[in-house]
Amino acid sequence: DAEQGHRMVFGYGYIPWEYRYGTRSYIIPGFVSGILFLCRLLQLDNPIVYAMVVKAVSSTLSVSIIYCIYFIGRNISTEASARLAAVFACLWYELIYFAHKPTPEILATYLLSGALVCLFRKPENGNALLFGLLAGLTVAVRLQYSPVVALICAVACLSWRKKTLAAAGLAFGVVIGLSGFLDYLTWGHFFSFYYQNYLFNAVHNISLIYGTESSFYYLLM
């Protein structure tokens, strides 16, 4: 995804099959291209320099998950437990290893964690709007996280008032609608990212080429 952002700014780069058939959204390439365009504008167009800038921005974003874990821990347990969870998050090897990589899985995890924080905060309209925004962006960036987003939305439905839910639903719908419009601008079809993902992975079983794991894989890991 970062390479596609590079291609948008500098005009060259490898194009994987996902970006030939519209199974990926241009949200992340657009985000990366904004950073690279700014670097180019400031004449920081040396690959060593702008690559480090992208990694620095990504690493800065990764700090958000530490705060999210702290906040959630404080709300479901104690202050001491929350601080301990935050320390463990700082030393979490996968976070350290992937922090500098702006991939859909990683960025969507940050967004999902932010949505969880909103779920634990007071259900005010502003918080609900942020919840809907983050939940919508999670789905727009990483469609495979939809079941988890559906689960936390179900929790919100059981916990929040109708007016608050309406605000969250509005923000969610706007984000999904804009992501569909972005697909129209980039792929020529509304919601191409969603449709092509289903077509290639559920109908044509392209994902099976890269290997499969048992249903209990994550639990066993």
Q: What do these coordinates show?
A:
With 221 residues, the chain is mostly helical. The chain has helices spanning 2-10, 18-21, 27-41, 47-76, 79-90, 93-98, 104-120, 125-141, 146-159, 162-187, 192-203, 217-220. α4 runs antiparallel to α5 (79-90) and α7 runs antiparallel to α8 (125-141). It is globular and about 50 Å long. The model has no long low-confidence stretch (mean pLDDT 91).
Features:
mainly alpha; 221 residues
What's the layout of helices and strands?
Layout: H1 2-10, H2 18-21, H3 27-41, H4 47-76, H5 79-90, H6 93-98, H7 104-120, H8 125-141, H9 146-159, H10 162-187, H11 192-203, H12 217-220
Helix pairs in contact: 1-3, 4-5, 4-7, 7-8, 7-9, 8-10
Proportion of residues in helical segments:
over 70%
Q: What structural class results from the helix and strand content?
A: mainly alpha
Multimerization state: single chain
Rg to the nearest angstrom?
19 Å
- Secondary structure tally, helices: 12
> How many strands in all?
0
The portion of residues forming beta strands comes to under 5%
- Unreliable spans: none
Q: Summarize model confidence as the mean pLDDT.
A: 91
The largest β sheet comes out as: none
Shape by Cα distribution: globular
Termini separation comes to 27 Å
- What is the helix/strand order? HHHHHHHHHHHH
